[in-house]
Predict the 3D structure of the following.
Amino acid sequence: MYKSNLLKFPFAIICVLLVLLGLSDLSVAQTRNLKFYIEKGVSNNPSLNEQKNTKASANLDKNLISSQYYRPLVYGSAEYLYAPTFGNFGYDKAVTNSGLYSALFNIEYPLLAKKRVRVLMEQAESSIDKSLIQEKLIAHEVERTITQQYIAGYQNQLELSYIQENIDLLDRQRNTLLKFTKQGLTSIADLKQLELELQTLKIQKESLKSSFRNKISQLNSFAGIIDAQSVSLEMPDITIESVTHRASSVFLNQFKIDSLISTIQQKVDELKYAPSLSIYGNTGVNTTQLNTLNNTFGFSAGIRFSVPIYDGSQKKITRGQNTLSIQSISAFKDQFEIEHKNKLTDIQAQLNTLKNQLTSFDNQIQEYEELLQIYRKEIESGDRSVVDYLIVLRGYISSKNQRITMETDRLLLLNEFNYWNW
């Protein structure tokens, strides 16, 4: 008999442990924090990878410019021309010599290229700066979106935790009422009323679990990961950041870069009006008579100079177009600054309002908890009905839910402030 009890004891412990593990869906979940999802989202975002490739391509453009203007162009060429004449038919032989036989090794090298190279290098650098700005903006937007989704998931997690507390509370109250009902101290109707409320909370819990799974699935998609594990989200650590100085705002810097790109584009357009000078040479065979091909090997060298004189005032027109572009960019920047300032002011005002409301709800919730404690004692003494208790409990649940919603709104506003204050 004694040996049988010893064998049953470990088995009982195992059963208890399994029951405890099954009580909470989050107790065996993998803990994740906001930083984890943001890092994954930034590293897996295809638009960010595209910007990195654009930046690398702009760097290659700089190498291409150096190669084009600081290194000679070497190429081979061959040409055969046959121009027959028959009586009064055919081209003038003085023009065609009846044919051309050419096989040459050529080399060309541009001079006066320093200004051209400098302007084209500025254009490549501005493209790199534009890519860097875009990369920062995309990463910032990814952080904002993932934080919003994380907060939504965390709200569901808080609601799940809270509704489980209420289920446990009502379950204990139900066990107490069950004893009282058997002793004839309370009515079966009161017990049934409490059991219905308990059943309603369990249905709400299942709905919240489904919503939480959906939020986590969307969060994984934003982060670019596949994760089938159950997760528990840590409280997001979001604090309001100090106001960014206007000169260091990345949002405003993008307008500065756009204006610079338009200015440099005008310089590039005007390069075609600069004089060009190049030297060239070739060696090989070049003849008009096939029978003298063996005796026509030689070389030649020359210098080529050109300067534009008139193109129908295209220079003036392109300057006007670029001026209009810069004016448009300036107008958008001014409008953005107004909206930007108003957004930050409005968010700060909303945060102050929420702070006061949260304090009021905390006081109200504390009063509800004290009242519920009193009602529980009165129910046990038979001085209070379950209906009265459930009315107060519903008010308590409503206040707690509103408090969770307000805290979520506060976190979302902090995220928005930090997004625009950048």
About this structure: Residues 32 and 271 are 56 Å apart (CA to CA). The chain has nine helices and six strands. The radius of gyration is 40 Å.
